C-alpha cells in the first residue's frame, strides 16, 4: 500500500494502534498488521483540524504549529478554549462551561517495567490512556469530580509517594529490554498501597495490560531516531507511542510525534 498525506491521528483502539492519514479522504492504517514499513516524515507540523458532528473538517487556515499542540486555537476552541488547561487547568470547568474540564477524572498509578508514574485522565478513557502510554499495569488511586481536582490530587500523591509524573522517552524505551514481571509489579503496588490507604480500607484494583502487538524483551534497547526523515525496515511491534523496527539494528520512532506532519509511505501487511 502506498499513501501520501497529512497524518491527523495516532490512536489506540483497545490494543489496535491506528494511524489516520488525510489526502482528501481519511485512511486508517492498522499498524499491528504491518510487516514492513518505509515512511518519509516531514519536518513541518500543521494543524490537524477537527471533527464536527462526526465529520472531519481540515484546518481552514492550514496553520503551521510549533511546540506540543497539534491543533491551532481556532480548531481546538470548540472543545478546549484554552489549550494550556490541558496540563494545568485553571478552573473546575465553571468559568468556560467546557465539558472537557468538568467531567469526572481519575488519578492513576502506571507501572511500565520497573518505572512508576502518577498521572490523571478523564474517567471515561482511563484504560485507553494507560494503553497510549504503554503501561504494563495500573491502578486507579483516586476519583475526582473534575480536571482541576484531579490535577491537584495528582501533584499531592506524586509528592507523597515520591513518584514522577513523567518519564523520558529514553527511560521508557529502556524497559523494552525487560519481559514484564507482573508478580514483581503487583508486589511493588501492594507495598505502595500501604502508604496511602489505611489497613481497613479496600485497596484499588491492580489491572494488567499485556496484549500489545510486540514480543518482549527485544534484544537491545531501541535507538530513538528523529521523527522527521526516513524510517524503513521490518516492524517488530508497537507499544505506547513507539513503533519498533529492524533496519537492521533496532530503532524506534515516536508515532505520536508524526501527527500533524506530511507523510509519504509504503506499507507491506502481514
Describe the overall structure.
With 270 residues, the protein is α+β, with helices and mostly antiparallel strands. 20% of the residues lie in helices and 38% in strands. A hairpin with a 3-residue loop joins strand 2 and strand 3 (26-30). The chain has helices at residues 73-76, 99-102, 126-132, 147-161, 169-174, 182-196, 255-258; strands at residues 2-13, 16-22, 26-30, 34-46, 50-52, 55-57, 64-65, 105-112, 115-122, 137-144, 207-208, 223-224, 229-239, 242-246, 250-254, 261-269. The model has no long low-confidence stretch (mean pLDDT 93). The protein is built from seven helices and 16 strands. The protein has one domain (2-269).
The whole-angstrom Rg is 19 Å
What count of structural domains? 1
Measure the end-to-end span: 12 Å
State the order of secondary-structure elements, H for helix, E for strand: EEEEEEEHHEEHEHHHEEEEEHE
Mean pLDDT: 93
How many distinct beta strands? 16
Show unreliable segments: none
Structural class: alpha+beta
> How many individual helices?
7
Helical fraction:
10-25%
Strand content: 35-45%
Sum up the overall morphology in one term: globular
Largest sheet: 10 strands, mixed
How would the blueprint of this fold be written?
Blueprint lengths: L1 E12 L2 E7 L3 E5 L3 E13 L3 E3 L2 E3 L6 E2 L7 H4 L22 H4 L2 E8 L2 E8 L3 H7 L4 E8 L2 H15 L7 H6 L7 H15 L10 E2 L14 E2 L4 E11 L2 E5 L3 E5 H4 L2 E9 L1
Parallel strand pairs: 12-15
Antiparallel strand pairs: 1-2, 1-16, 2-3, 4-7, 4-13, 4-16, 5-6, 8-9, 8-10, 10-11, 13-14, 14-15
Amino acid at each position: 500500500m502506498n499513501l501520501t498525506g497529512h497524518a491527523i491521528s495516532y490512536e489506540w483502539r483497545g490494543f489496535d494502534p491506528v494511524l489516520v492519514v488525510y489526502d482528501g479522504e481519511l485512511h486508517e492504517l492498522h499498524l499491528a498488521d504491518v510487516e514492513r514499513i518505509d515512511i518519509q516524515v516531514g519536518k513541518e507540523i500543521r494543524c490537524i483540524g477537527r471533527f464536527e458532528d462526526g465529520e472531519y473538517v481540515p484546518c481552514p487556515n492550514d496553520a503551521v504549529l510549533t511546540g506540543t499542540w497539534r491543533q491551532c486555537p481556532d480548531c481546538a476552541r470548540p472543545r478546549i478554549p484554552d489549550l494550556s488547561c490541558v496540563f494545568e487547568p485553571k478552573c473546575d470547568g465553571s468559568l468556560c462551561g467546557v465539558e472537557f474540564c468538568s467531567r469526572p477524572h481519575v488519578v492513576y498509578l502506571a507501572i511500565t517495567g520497573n518505572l512508576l508514574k502518577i498521572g490523571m485522565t478523564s474517567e471515561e478513557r482511563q484504560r485507553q490512556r494507560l494503553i497510549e502510554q504503554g503501561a504494563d499495569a495500573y491502578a486507579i488511586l483516586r476519583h475526582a469530580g473534575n480536571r482541576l481536582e484531579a490535577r491537584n490530587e495528582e501533584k499531592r500523591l506524586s509528592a507523597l509517594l515520591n513518584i514522577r509524573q513523567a518519564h523520558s522517552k529514553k527511560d521508557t524505551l529502556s524497559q523494552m529490554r525487560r519481559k514484564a514481571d507482573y508478580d514483581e509489579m503487583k508486589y511493588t503496588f501492594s507495598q505502595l498501597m500501604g502508604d496511602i490507604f489505611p489497613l481497613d480500607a479496600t485497596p484499588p484494583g491492580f489491572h494488567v495490560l499485556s496484549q500489545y502487538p510486540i514480543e518482549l524483551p527485544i534484544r537491545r534497547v531501541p535507538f530513538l531516531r528523529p521523527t522527521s526523515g526516513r524510517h524503513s525496515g521490518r516492524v517488530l511491534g508497537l507499544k505506547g507511542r513507539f513503533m519498533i523496527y529492524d533496519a537492521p539494528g533496532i530503532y524506534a520512532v515516536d508515532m505520536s510525534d508524526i501527527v500533524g506532519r506530511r507523510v509519504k509511505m509504503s506499507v507491506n501487511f502481514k
